[in-house]
Amino acid sequence: MENSADHTVVISTVNAFHSREYYTEQIVNQKLVAPIIYLIILLLIGPPGNISILIIYRNYNKNVYRKIIWIIAVVDLLICLIGVPFNLGRLFNYYNFQSLRACRIVAGLLDSGIMTSTQLLVLLTIHRYRQVCYPLKRQITIQNVTYFIGACFAIGIVSGIPQIAVLQPLAETDFGHGVTGYTCSVAWKDSPQGWKNYNIFLSSLFLFYTLLLFVLYAFIGRTLLRLKRKRRTDNNRENAQYNRSAGLSMKITKIAFTVSLVFAISYLPLFLNEVAIKDFDETKLSWSTFALLKIVQRSYLINHVANPFIYYRFDNHFRSRLNSCFMTIARCKKIDNNKKQTNNMNGSPRKTDSGI
């Protein structure tokens, strides 16, 4: 009877040892520490940064440029609030992801947000291109830009529908002992052909947009260089107003170009990964390679966190307003600390002679 009980305990221990939870805990503790830290950092700086854009540029209806970057900040904020926690959940439940529908719905929402953000970035670039290269022709105005923004959202939503409507199965990993791990994977490796075609279409669209951005900025840069040379030859008092306007145009173009460059850099590793991962067996990768792979697969999130740093670097208005906010917070904190110290001093009991 005692031997039977011991045998039952051993079987229970083995079953507990060989479980999805066990393998998930092992991979989280050994291989996913760096990706988790990476995502936590993005979660800490992404939402506050995008909220600062929304506050500082809240009077966005004054011009097209600010309205577009304000809407981009809204989309980036949503991606930070949805995408980063979702990816953390995927990592913490790496082999034990339970809900197929949650995996696909959130992935579809992220696809929609990413595509919308990309469309808005292209719209911003086209706006700059027409302003710089064709200033006398019809422009995107504050009155009609809303329709273009609506079109960007429509294209983004349509792009994400297949991810939601077609529930691609969770990725499976066979550990033996009758244990199978389920991963919320968005890779193409084991996807049906139709799903691969859909992802190839999205990737081709991203590559086209990236190429379009750099071509347009090449034309913009050439035009601005020509205008800069003209300013040097006509640098007199009559052209002072023109020079200020050209300088502002150059600053806005630098911001838009840097935003586009960060977009390309942050998404390029993801596309290269999708091509290279076809020959990878994740279970055979070293912990460092595996961790790097998971960071690369989420490198696109940098694009939705970086814009506040770009505006802080190039936009004097944004930088001064943000510095003022920091100084106000620091001043308020200092006042609170002084009040606490004063209250502590006033509230401390005074020493009196006991007469002994």
Automatic annotation (TrEMBL):
The chain crosses the membrane at residues 36-56, 68-86, 106-124, 145-165, 198-220, 252-272. Residues 48-311 form the G-protein coupled receptors family 1 profile domain. CDD domains: 7tm_classA_rhodopsin-like. GO terms for molecular function: G protein-coupled receptor activity. This is G-protein coupled receptors family 1 profile domain-containing protein. It is found in: Membrane. PROSITE patterns: G_PROTEIN_RECEP_F1_1 (PS00237), G_PROTEIN_RECEP_F1_2 (PS50262). It is a multi-pass membrane protein. SUPFAM superfamilies: Family A G protein-coupled receptor-like. One of its GO terms (cellular component) is membrane. It comes from Mytilus coruscus (Sea mussel). Belongs to the G-protein coupled receptor 1 family. Keywords: G-protein coupled receptor, Membrane, Receptor, Transducer, Transmembrane, Transmembrane helix. It comes from the Eukaryota.
